[in-house]
Description:
Elements: E1 2-5, E2 11-14, E3 18-19, H1 20-27, H2 29-34, E4 37-40, E5 43-46, E6 50-51, E7 55-60, H3 65-86, E8 91-92, E9 97-98, E10 101-107, H4 118-129, E11 136-140, H5 142-152, H6 155-162, E12 169-174, E13 177-180, E14 194-204, E15 213-222, H7 225-241, H8 243-249, E16 253-254, E17 265-266, H9 268-287, E18 291-292, E19 298-300, H10 301-307, H11 309-313, E20 321-322, E21 329-332, H12 337-344, E22 356-365, E23 381-391, H13 396-413, E24 419-425, H14 438-454, E25 459-463, E26 472-478, E27 484-493, H15 495-499, E28 504-505, E29 511-512, E30 515-520, H16 525-536, E31 549-553, H17 559-571, E32 576-578, H18 585-594, E33 599-603, H19 605-610, E34 612-617, E35 621-627, H20 628-644
Parallel strand pairs: 1-7, 18-22, 24-25, 31-32, 31-33
Antiparallel strand pairs: 1-2, 3-6, 4-5, 4-7, 8-10, 9-10, 10-15, 11-12, 12-13, 14-15, 16-17, 19-21, 20-21, 22-23, 23-30, 24-26, 26-27, 27-30, 28-29, 33-34, 34-35
Helix pairs in contact: 3-4, 5-6, 8-16, 13-14
This protein binds one RNA strand through β14, β15, α11 and α18.
Amino acid sequence: MITITLPDGSQRQYPKESTSLDVAKSISEGLARNVLAAKVNGEVWDAMRPITNDAKLTLLTWNDDAGKSTLWHSSAHLMAEALEALYPGVKFWVGPPVENGFYYDIDLGDKTISSDDFKKIEDKMIELARQNNPYIRKAISKKDAIAYFKEKNDEYKLDLLQGLEDGNITLYQQGNFTDLCRGPHVPNTGFIKAVKLMNVAGAYFKGDEKNKMLTRIYGISFLKEKDLKEYLTLLEEAKKRDHRKLGKELELFTFSEKVGMGLPLWLPKGAALRERLVQFLQKAQVKAGYQPVITPHIGHKQLYVTSGHYEKYGKDSFQPINTPQEGEQFFLKPMNCPHHCEIYKTSPRSYKDLPLRFAEFGTVYRYEQHGELHGLTRVRGFTQDDAHLFCRPDQLKEEFCKVIDLVLYVFRALDFPDFTAQISLRDPDNKSKYIGSDQNWEKAEQAIIESAKEKGLKTTVELGEAAFYGPKLDFMVKDAIGRKWQLGTIQVDYNLPERFELEYTGSDNMKHRPVMIHRAPFGSLERFVAVLIEHCAGNFPLWLTPEQVYVLPISEKYNDYALKVSQLLKNSDIRALVDERNEKIGRKIRDTEVKKIPFMLIVGEKEEMENKVSLRKHTEGDKGTYSIQEFIDIINKEIETKMVSA
RNA sequence: GCUGUUGUAGCUCAGUGGUAGAGCACUUCCUUGGUAAGGAAGAGGUCGUGAGUUCAAUCCUCAUCAACAGCUCCA
């Protein structure tokens, strides 16, 4: 007998070689039907794999990420089986699960696949799935594995095998398909009830552009047909919220080939929205003891040599601007920090002066690769809500925690309740990518980990995701339809102060080196606005929205009264416009709804007589009649409650 | 940057080896209407750009630019 410890701490006895599925069955039949895999002593295993020793066991279902991944991984194998049946001779590279589904990289020889072929492949997959073929795990020697794939003439799998250790190699077979795979998999293909292939794209063998381009087919699968439908609805919703589409429709921003790719042009409404965000943060920053500074858009090459940016990004930047006479080189500013370091150096600093907090909405320019540009989320010129905090080492944690508070304040104010903090550390196996001493890195990483813990943030840790000069705490927010976006960032930096030889005089009258914190709650205004648009689907919070109220006269006869109403609103700092067009009221309402204007005031004979307005709310409809002052109170209250909840 | 797809009116998109069409938006006129599209007329494009093939190119070929998807990258 073996002892199985379940997540709640309870222990049960089972015969040796029992499987996770046996354990599930002993708990409930319903649970057993939903088990996709199991975590055995921290390792994800097949639910059908016999457990030989005492173990801690967590059963994994669709509700667990690892459970989903297992189903998707199995689905990749199923797709491979279907492909092998439909395209004999196809060769396989790898087929892993990804965040939303799975893919398989394949080599079709001289054949091609397009989205027109998806239906056929999906149908084949479902046909195979219905056979309920078990996924059979087979441990195999390296020699036998090589022999098998040689026989099959699958050079990619042979390549993969080279990197694997003998004694640690497993094959998985379902139906007529056998794959080199470490697993785990769901018990049988019957779990896969709904399948959708999403797209086909080229992908380099091993991700190296010098290598051959393979065909990558993306798909997703579900336990229920209903879940697939829901997923497709979500995708449609995401499409509707695409900030590039809404940005155009709502006249927020545009791009021009003439100005240059990746260089956004903010239209009046977009600029107004952005300005409001800036003012909002500025106000919060002043309260938090930040001092605004302003620095130029270019900087001398030497500045970036000192900072290390030149060495790291010099070749991949916009190329230098040369002065005609002195032949000196200037670079477009890719970051604000070197400039702010120079501001720090303008006068000798005492320990009593610290922390110093320099804030700047600094526009920076980075040469992003052609294929990377994407709407406002990835651009070549953008404005960071940047600030650099210079503090004593003993102040670091407190300052860091205060910055976390500020970031959380911003997220709450803008209605992003769901987020996690990603701690991005250095890749311990590739330290040459980074500048600075091991000691400084360790201190910085420690400070971040401790601060995040102290603030009780939900964190994940990513190795190798740090900036080249220091580790980061990145905030990953979830939007209204559950997608994750990286927004704010806080970074601890011991390196730039060293490179710029920043100092302060301590209470011991000795020179000391300050620590620097880089931080940007929004990240960049461009990216933030993009995320905000998609989050609220263009229905901005009242305090941010470019136009709050449209006054709609029933006919042109009431235009004068409408103008009077709008003027009264403007006098109360409400953003109001009159639709003076010669159109019927139904038409005006429709057009205003489409523009996502929060409030409509309909005015006609009745309203003019009584000096009132008829209120209609976006998507909600008629709200009755109010005096102008009553309406001003309503809207102000609504603006205020949004800000108070902030 | 790499691979693939796309580029026609302000927007969304049809279409053809003989220099172009729809809907919406726009302009004018009629209508002055009470809670999601009133009616009519009109204006608007050297079909991304450059070259080539052809008697003739928006359409075919090549190059180039840009957008989109994926890969690689992201201070």
